[in-house]
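Working notes for the structural subgroup meeting. M.R. asked for a predicted model of this chain before we commit to crystallization trials. I am recording the input and output together here so anyone reviewing the notebook later can reproduce the run.

Input as submitted:
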Amino acid sequence: MNSIDLFVKNWSSKSAMVPIKAEDINELESKLNAFLPDSYKYLISTYGLVHTPNVLTKICDLGSDISEVQDFLSLADIYSLSQLYEMSGMQKGHILFASDCKGNMFCFKQTDCVSQQKDAAVWFFDQGLCSVTQVSDSFSEWLDKFNEL
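Returned structure, recorded in token form:
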């Protein structure tokens, strides 16, 4: 979980983050009929919802081509926005968990979450193109991309 701890240390806005209770995470997984990756659950249960406003500035300064993350979604938003985005054109079968500053979303594939697992690939939904593309083989690897900036 070192990449997660380092990500929070490097990028969190340090505003009051409240860790999310395991019972609340279990309830969301039940509603989604899916298991969220352990790495992601570690982040939200240890730190809470991370806000990373400085990632965009750093990416622009470096001219990096990775898509910036700004906000990790609340559990209620994960459930409702995953459904809403599907109704507005996103392919079915994705669990949203974070957004950039333009309303594009980072997500896990529902099919990757049918059983308990340590980590899962991260996908990016581009609203403008209405497309979903894989951006990382795992959640931890995805966070490491920001840690390397």
